[in-house]
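Appendix C reproduces, verbatim, an entry submitted by the partner laboratory led by Prof. M.T., so that reviewers can inspect both the input and the predicted structure.
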Amino acid sequence: MAELREWQDVLARPRLLPLVGATLLLLAAYALSGLIWGGVVTGLDGPRLSAGDAVSIFMIANMGRYVPGKVWSVAGMAALAKGKGVPVAVSATSAVIVQGTGLMAAGAIGLGAFVGGPVPLPRWGLAGAGVAAGLLVLVLAVPSLFHATVALWFRIVRTAAPANLSAALVLRWLLQVALAWVAMGASFWILAASLGMELSPVHAGSAFAAAYVAGYLMLFAPAGVGVREGFLIAILAPALGSGSATVLAIAARLWMTAAEVIPAAILWALHQRSLSQPEPKRG
């Protein structure tokens, strides 16, 4: 408790410049995710969305994560995209693809928390990571296995699988989403630095990704609340101590929520204003 009280002052007065940098990088990662989603829509033969529309729809629909169950963000995305001429099936399928590739990318990056952290991953864990990487390569390389895996994933999420989905497209989107996750992990590392906490970039970013996956898999927890923080504390406590890890986990939750909710609220207000404006008369 004494350590937590000591960190209250740090939490109240973070270093401003790193905090601003971390927030801007996180927002850039969110925007990149929205652009990736827009690219997936086009890749599934949907209409080409403007960058502003893609990011706006993604950010607003992302608020559905705060409702228990993992379908509300997909439903919100489908409803908003429909107003831009995107068929519901295409928008829902693209959201499912972005979620699936996001989980794969975050899971792969999250292994670094154990490999490069203060508590090394045991040999069986390294072997498991190698097997997982080999399976991913195998799935992408063997067409019949790829299509069977795609069919299984879409059966789990109860969405019709697109007929034109190829391994090359999935690999391209996976690499793009991985880049967004690298940016999010880096933003978390800078956030920790703004609070005076020293972590290696690999350990900070991979811990952030691993905690996200853990929170996502717990369907009962809206936006992984509680679960994500618990995993983050467990992973970072050996390096920071339990008190500092707890403070960082709480700070990260408040920081991420503000970075998600405030821009989404602004974009939603702009969206509502555009709907209320009368269409210009023709001819």
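The mean pLDDT is 81. Additional entries are available on request from the coordinating office.
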